[in-house]
Amino acid sequence: xxxxxxxxxxxxxxxxxxxxxxxxxxxxxxxxxxxxxxxxxxxxxxxxxxxxxxxxxxxxxxxxxxxxxxxxxxxxxxxxxxxxxxxxxx
Length: 90
Description:
Layout: H1 2-31, H2 48-71, H3 76-88
Helix pairs in contact: 2-3
């Protein structure tokens, strides 16, 4: 029993230590992302800022649609249909 617990703790700590650099890198890169609507280029010349801006715009639109659905007190299929139409609208 104790050996199994020790092995579990050891494997869990190994997973956390392995994932920590990836989590830190993701957090740092999202904090340093370009503001929406601006495009930055990396060494290869591709526009990475526009992709981040598009994702931010989609997130903002989805958040606004969810807020509107909550204000209208929509639930179930009505909420799903509303969100689908709202997010698809230009």
